[in-house]
């Protein structure tokens, strides 16, 4: 009988679940709200009861499962199966996630951080085409990433994949990490808006983006991309600057690791081919000639499903 | 009976050989000159006869060896065991290195490029303390590198480890690779001199370095480091700039891979702790806080032996 896998993607607003085959095909999926009340004390019990409820519903037994894999925010101790300091879950203290889930579901449990898990998802079943060498960058509220080399996630001493904190501008914008000029300060959703506000001050031509900002209207990264696509001069300058930094970061990832694919996902990547083409322009400029030919930039393909799929794949290694 | 390994480090002027134990202890070593005449046609036969001669001398048989590992310049095809375009060896066409060496020594042969092999040597028996995650940067005529993650060399599609071509200055110096602002253009032996000449032009204070350059005296990277150590103002400014770029590159390697150690070797690293401290200053500034605490910069320890030791280790994986 074919055995199945459960993938769990734990986020600050929802917890996504899926039951997958060993080949990574999603057979069932569902989600619940994340209840972060009481220092997040309900989260792990909610995960357990949701899994047990669905196994009952589908008339499945723990023995039918290879394991449960989960992606989590915060600092993950993979060996001990604990999570510390996941502030969007209100988890300040260390949570014994693995211990409780294994005890209460009778299924083997594996955990890694959410950016790594999304990277694995795209590498396995998405834009990474199951290649052994894939880098993943997610452009959202922050900028995160994950690196797969020789078919395995790179953890280093623990914090590998901090793509958002690669320096792209010495003495650039101040970052939440305390450093200056991190990629995240320019290329996250808030970073794009920051660049827009900054460049608007010096800009004196004709621009809708400029008028909206001067008007005090709320703008988002999407506003900037949409206006740039409609040839707004300032918006185009902003996107060009953001993509310049992303292009340098991708080139440096390429020069260092020469992966088959650098996959770009996250909310900001909804800007699609327009974003990708602008990044590629600078990637081509800064990548080593043989890297330019062999490392390909791609948009993520799995969207919200990358998390559960990647989480499931944790159980297979 | 303990089996042995042969490590070969093929360079443009000498070929170094060593016989090592499985634990990487060097038991015998010797070297021969590299004869690059006749399109480098003598090189592989010279390697074969030198190995066979020494086995005869030490009364050893092919069966006593796990294998021969070799580091080579040029583009190495590891699966086929061939080398293409190693211009300092006069090898323009593809050379069937593995085929000939295995046939004529009766010992299994493994090959990788010289920077990767030196990285493996330092990772295994040098400053890397046999850790699973080590990055290596060599500062010589050029700047090269090698990355070990999860205990294995990262090759990517083939060209991983091009640390010297990481971009550190958009629109900076033109590099031999055709791009601008590659680390190599500032931090190689010739790069340091280039920075010195450039900064001397704008410099108007009191400086021996400036006088020597204005005098038309020949200067090297060593001259610049030596003068900086003796507090020459311009020399200190040059080293500060070079180490700023090296610090950014090391920080970005750290942010991406979070290795236990980033090991700095090659001729320029003879400048020792003075070099390391100046790089660390900028590494601290640009590395992500947790990376700053867990990734340590170190000077290489094996010197010229890194090549044969790392080459030998190729036979063990």
From TrEMBL, chains A, B:
MF annotations from Gene Ontology: ATP binding; glucokinase activity
Keywords of the record: ATP-binding, Kinase, Nucleotide-binding, Transferase
EC number: 2.7.1.2
Record bears the keyword Transferase: yes
UniProt-listed GO biological process terms: glycolytic process
One term under GO cellular component: cytoplasm
InterPro entries documented for this protein: ATPase_NBD, ROK, ROK_cs, ROK_glcA
Xref: SUPFAM superfamilies: Actin-like ATPase domain
Pfam family, one: ROK
Record PROSITE patterns: ROK
Coiled coil regions in record: none
Family classification: Belongs to the ROK (NagC/XylR) family.
Record-given protein name: Glucokinase
Organism ancestry: Bacteria, Bacillati, Bacillota, Bacilli, Lactobacillales
């Amino acid at each position: 009988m074919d055995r199945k896998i459960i993938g769990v993607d734990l986020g600050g607003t929802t917890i996504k679940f899926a039951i997958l085959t060993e080949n990574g095909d999603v057979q069932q999926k569902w989600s619940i709200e994340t209840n972060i009340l009481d220092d997040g004390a309900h989260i792990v019990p909610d995960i357990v009861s949701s899994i047990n409820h669905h196994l009952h519903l589908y008339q499945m037994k723990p023995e039918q499962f290879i394991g449960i894999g989960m992606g989590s925010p915060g600092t993950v101790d993979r060996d001990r199966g604990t999570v510390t300091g996941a502030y969007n879950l209100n988890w300040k203290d260390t949570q014994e996630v693995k211990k409780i889930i294994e005890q209460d579901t009778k299924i083997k449990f594996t955990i890694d951080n959410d950016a790594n898990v999304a990277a694995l998802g795209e590498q396995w079943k998405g834009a990474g085409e199951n290649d052994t060498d894939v880098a993943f960058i997610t452009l959202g509220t922050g900028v995160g990433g994950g690196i797969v080399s020789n078919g395995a996630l790179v953890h280093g001493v623990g914090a590998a994949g901090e793509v958002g904190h690669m320096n792209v501008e010495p003495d650039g914008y101040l970052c939440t990490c305390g450093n200056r000029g991190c990629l995240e300060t320019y290329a996250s959703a808030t970073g794009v808006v920051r660049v827009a506000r900054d460049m608007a001050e010096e800009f004196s031509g004709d621009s809708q983006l400029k008028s909206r900002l001067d008007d005090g209207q709320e703008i988002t990264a999407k506003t900037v991309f949409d206006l740039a696509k409609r040839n707004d001069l300032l918006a185009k300058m902003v996107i060009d600057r953001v993509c310049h930094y992303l292009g340098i970061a991708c080139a440096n990832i390429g020069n260092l690791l020469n992966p088959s694919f650098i996959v770009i996902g996250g909310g900001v990547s909804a800007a699609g081919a327009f974003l990708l083409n602008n990044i590629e322009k600078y990637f081509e400029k800064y990548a080593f000639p043989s890297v330019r030919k062999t490392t390909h930039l791609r948009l993520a393909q799995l969207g919200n499903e990358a998390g559960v799929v990647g989480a499931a794949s944790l159980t297979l290694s």
